[in-house]
Write a structure and sequence with these properties.
By secondary structure, this protein is mainly β. Among the domains are: 122-232, Methylamine Dehydrogenase, Chain H, CATH 2.130.10.10; 235-295, no CATH class. The protein is built from 2 helices and 23 strands. The strands form 6 sheets. Strands 12-13-14-15-19 form a 5-stranded mixed beta sheet, with no helix packed on it. Strands 4-5-6-7 form a 4-stranded antiparallel beta sheet, with no helix packed on it. The termini are far apart. The relative contact order is 0.09. Residues 249-259 have a biased composition (Polar residues).
């Protein structure tokens, strides 16, 4: 990929096509295609993931998983043939986590291609529909059609299993305190970390899920969508706790005189989130003011 005289790499949009190609679009040049990678001539690209720390691009085409060098985009450094169909995958800590439609979870080491299956006790009873990692908490959360949310550490040890008793279409970390946001049908739910873990410690994120827990849990419903069912949820940025009205979608920006007067630490921007009444608040641009009220 192109690097300027100062050593900066341009911003790219990586797109997988139904023709089996991967396009690198240079956003600084109005989306000009600067590189085209042919992965397959007979099948479409179903998933792509990037590991920026190791400069690796991962593509999934049918049941063939390929790892490419971002420094030399046309060089395939590893190819893996899968035994079953994947529903989603996630890159974290040099590992590629593979979630199957049968409910099993497997990790693939990007460096040497070694694989390690999660113990049977950690498997879902049906397809895994969503998965996201949290590099601050060092945990991975999964959700499936069996109605369960499961949290694993990087050693693939099951730490928490929550039964929401409903089909889970999407799940993500709401903040770095360990709270979760999940979607089921037309509804969004928030699950507080201190409700699903007896060892919740606000000062020690890494000990948040130290003791395994398995329990049924009634989540806090945040919002009911008026349109179609929710298929995916995604939050970006880094949150801090603030006090906001229940059922709000909000954002904030770095520390200003007003936010400093409230005692907010003012961290970096870019997050939008939903909150419930009286629980941990996530946060971040516009001084924590409510932009959209969800009635």
């Amino acid at each position: 990929l192109e690097v300027d005289r100062l050593g900066n790499v341009n911003d790219y949009l990586v797109v997988g096509t139904s023709e089996g190609d991967v396009h690198f679009l240079d956003l600084s040049r109005k989306g000009e295609i600067t590189c085209r990678l042919t992965v397959s001539k007979v099948a479409e690209i179903s998933m792509i993931r990037i590991d920026p720390l190791r400069a690796r691009l991962v593509t999934l085409c049918q049941r063939t998983l390929c790892v490419w060098s971002m420094e030399h985009p046309k060089v395939c450094v590893r190819e893996v043939k899968l035994r079953e169909d994947l529903s989603t995958m996630e890159v974290a800590h040099g590992q590629l986590w593979l979630a199957s439609k049968s409910g099993s979870l497997t990790s693939l080491r990007l460096e040497d291609g070694g694989t390690s299956a999660v113990p049977a006790i950690g498997d879902h009873m049906g397809a895994i529909t969503s998965m996201e990692s949290n590099l601050v908490l060092d945990h991975l959360v999964t959700g499936g059609i069996d109605g369960r949310l499961k949290i694993f550490d990087w050693q693939k040890t099951l730490k928490v299993s929550l039964n929401l008793a409903t089909h889970i279409s999407a799940v993500c970390w709401l903040n770095d305190n360990g709270d979760l946001l999940s979607a089921s049908g037309k509804r969004l739910y928030m699950i507080r970390a201190d409700r699903c873990c007896d060892t919740y410690r606000k000062q020690s994120h890494r000990e948040l899920y130290r003791a395994p827990r398995v329990r049924a849990l009634k989540a806090t419903e945040l919002y009911s969508m008026r349109g179609g069912p929710v298929m995916d949820v995604l939050l970006t940025g880094e949150p801090y706790p603030v006090n906001l009205p229940a059922g709000s979608l909000y954002s904030s920006r770095p520390n200003t005189s007003e936010s400093a007067a409230r005692g907010s630490p003012g961290r970096r921007t870019g997050r939008k989130a939903l909150v419930d009444g009286g629980a941990t608040r996530a946060c971040t641009p516009n001084d924590g003011d409510v932009r959209y009220q969800m009635k």
